[in-house]
């Protein structure tokens, strides 16, 4: 990551800090006549500020940032840098700059911040609750509540390598009540975010991009260790960014990132997003948790897991209806540190796809990322009963070539003897984390016979589809409809398609039955399904709306769009113009008004 905005070596680095530029640059006021004109300087760090403090003189970086990144965000200013920083702070800053400039500069496109943070991937500032303009149609009454979308939004301008997964979590929420809408954007106030805000500089290492090659990894680990010993941060209080998803269970709302504990949040009456704090569930959840827990809509139980670089590499657990965590079930049959990002549940089972992506020390030694695909590894799927006491009940199925990152749905057939799972298969898995723009995801239906051990699979569509959702009422039971984002390329979503799984049961043909493309220069994110009548057990599975944020890269305007899930064109029935840009992000959630009031 970046470093503190001061330097020990004045001949090499000077104590300067610049802000993110969030509007086209204006000519700065001329300095007083008694002061010399500022010279070109090197940028050390930048941060996004809510307030408007004073401006400090800056040095121009040698590496120029794209004009689009600068002009597409609002202009903000940072506090003046303190000149009397402690000696250890200055030393750590020097080491940061040496590592970022000489040992491990961001040479690869996938970790080059001027590429990763270009256009609508560039961060925005927090926005307090602001009333929105409804520019099309009328917001349906079933949308009374709030739609949240989580995603990365770095607090500071990265100076070294930066991966899209590294950014600080920011929630973008639109609160809807009686046809009116209020929008708010707030950082998840994680321990990392607050510590770096107080320090006025980034001090935590980037987990995805900061450990490339043995030399750089040892160097950054040494600097981080020094900072820990000097009390600059405490890793036991969390190192995560909570930037991946949002979930509601146990009568609480959580911002999630799989490298840390969940952060409880709530929505104030005026639509403001408030971080309550890190939740360890009465001391029963000591480390990290998946960003994709599964809530059974019937039992109200929530199932989750964690994975990590050390044994047990996978641990399964669940929460009761009241959010009380149950005992861990270590899965010792996972014998290597696998990247298990998501899973699925049925009425009686939990399904874990173990793909070819692993955390590899050898990859790091060879100068690459510590997380990479191993072509020698055979992908497999594990099935375990939901209330298992140990991993002796886990049954594994080898499925060569099936690399699942996100699961869509799963259910049981043949009186529980057959498990069916629907999920996108990453065909070019070697690019899954490094070059997502080269990834093609093919949605497949996978059938596993628990008695014979046989597995069959076939694609439901030839399109590049991911970030898929179903009607939440059909989690763990057989569903018919799926709503997927169209990669163009990933992670940018150029439209939404609706798949009818039943069409594949006879002749395995293309299952797309409805489509809505957002238009030239317009891209959205993961869609989310909201039922019109969630309390009606006789309502149709697709009787509802699809919602998403959509950004127009030509006009630089973002909208909240509402689409009719039954329409063959997924017709837009309402659209809200948002008061500021919403960067592309990850996963979202709609929470009904009656649940918001209980937070």
From TrEMBL:
**Keyword Metal-binding applies:** yes
Cofactor: record remark: Binds 1 Fe(2+) ion per subunit.
Q: Which co-factor is required? A: Fe(2+)
Q: List every stretch annotated Disordered.
A: 53-82
* Binding residue positions for Fe cation: 292, 341, 406, 587
A Pfam family cross-referenced in the UniProt record is RPE65
* Record's keyword terms, sorted: Dioxygenase, Iron, Metal-binding, Oxidoreductase
What's any one GO cellular component for it?
chloroplast stroma
- Could you tell me the superkingdom of the organism this chain comes from? Eukaryota
Name residues in a coiled coil. Answer: none
Q: Where is the composition biased (Basic residues)?
A: 59-79
The entry's family comment says: Belongs to the carotenoid oxygenase family.
UniProt-recorded name of the protein = Carotenoid cleavage dioxygenase
Q: Which organism is it from?
A: Chrysanthemum morifolium (Florist's daisy)
Question: Upper lineage ranks?
Answer: Eukaryota, Viridiplantae, Streptophyta, Embryophyta, Tracheophyta
